[in-house]
Amino acid sequence: MPDRHALLGPSGAHRWMACTPSARLETGIPDKGSRFAKEGTLAHRIGELLLRRRWEGADIAAALDEAHADPLYSDGMGEYMDGYAAFVEERMADAKARCNDPRIFIEQRVSFEGYIPESFGTADCLIVTDDLLDVIDLKYGQGVPVSAENNEQMRIYGLGCYLEWSWAYEIKSIRMTIYQPRLDSVSTATMTREELLAWAENELKPRALLAWEGKGDFCPGDSTCRWCRAAPICKANRDYQMALAREDFEDPPCMTPEEISEVLKRLPALLDWAESVKAYALDAAINYGDHFPGFKVVEGRSNRKYTDEDAIAGILRKAGYKVAEIYKPRELLGLTAMEKLVGKKKFGELAGAYIIKPEGAPTLVPESDRRPALNTAAKAAEDFNDNFKEDN
Ligand code: SF4
User: Fold this and answer.
1) Rounded CA separation 242/161 (Å)
2) pLDDT in single tens digits along all 392 residues of the chain
3) Which of 19, 31, 273 to mutate to test the pocket of ligand 1 (most atoms within 8 A of CB)?
4) Whose C-alpha lies nearest to ligand 1, atom 2?
5) Where are the domains of the chain?
6) Ligand 1 neighbourhood includes 225 CB (under 6 angstroms)
7) What CATH fold (topology level) applies to the domain 10-213?
8) Is the peptide bond before 252 cis (omega within 30 degrees of 0)?
9) What is the strand order of the sheet 131-138 is part of?
10) Closest C-alpha among 299, 232, 241, 293 to residue 266
11) Residue having the nearest C-alpha atom to atom 7 of ligand 1
């Protein structure tokens, strides 16, 4: 999983294979590491411990206690990791049915020598048998389901695991699985040894060499630039993002629905980029004294707040105000915080009958979104006219 010290790590392969100069351009730009990344690291640690206890007989009590004491831990996380361990158990049972001596490796460090210079990574879990090599990658994020099909990162892990074990097993196929418990998503792709090695030789190796040398063309795109650390300062990305603003629209002067669709499609990436430029400039101005002509750093707006709530309550009570007047009514924790406290499954069992999901406000999304289209005003009018004609 963590491969953050390699210039060409597997997790960034989708980017550096598409935009080969990106890896060198990112060098020196610190990876700030978000709360979500820290949460993912903790979940991986717990998953690793559970697997080591089950498959290596390790005594994990102290390490598990330490993980549970982390403020980012929740019962929900524990349940998700139990699910991960159960999934690996199933895969291992499957391996035992096929092979007499399957072996499981947990947090296995692999390198990609001969294909990617000075690169290495850590595979979350791999199960080796004759015929099939199973590579399982745990992703704790809850953004979007990630597909294992055509997934460069998974192929590189598959390659690394194959290189590590092909001397001992007659591996014919490599099965790559992304397990995303929070999205209830399991995505699997399988390649033959020949397919994977041909991809590695013909596509991975030349792109990795270009990336290592910092050569090749910049190739901006929404998914390519999304997690690039150079995104706020990269000119190619700036030109790509700003192309929309420069677009010459044809007569008539008002945008057509198709042109509005084009703007809507590009908006999320454009807004993300604008935010990343703003965050980069603020950090550079505050922490490195950089100056951006026409801008200055000022103190942001703030709201007054109490320094000692008990003291204020005491004073107001003495002044004759009642408890009910000066305190807010007690309030239950929100759903997310409550699930974190009780555990998602247990909370569902205890209180599921009292939870509803109200209708959401209408929102515009791409046609590919899985939600069914709403009966909008125009459609409602159409339906009304149809019904009216049928009735007459
Ligand atoms: S921001 Fe995009 S175009 Fe620029 S280096 Fe990164 S991936 Fe390449």
Assistant:
1) 42
2) 444 568 999 999 999 999 999 999 998 787 776 778 889 999 999 999 999 999 999 999 999 999 999 999 988 899 999 999 999 999 999 999 988 889 999 999 999 989 999 998 999 999 999 899 999 999 998 888 999 999 999 999 999 999 999 988 889 999 999 999 999 999 999 999 999 999 999 999 999 999 999 999 999 998 899 889 999 999 999 999 888 666 666 667 788 888 889 888 888 888 999 999 999 999 889 888 899 999 999 988 889 999 999 999 999 999 999 998 999 888 899 998 898 888 888 899 999 999 998 888 888 888 888 888 887 655 555 655 665 555 55
3) 19
4) 225
5) 10-213, 222-288
6) yes
7) Lambda Exonuclease; Chain A (3.90.320)
8) yes
9) 103-111, 120-128, 131-138, 171-180, 185-192
10) 241
11) 225
- Cα separation of 366 and 263, whole Å? 12
- For residue 101, the CA-to-ligand 1 centroid distance in Å is 45
CA dihedral 169, 170, 174, 177 (to 10 degrees): -40
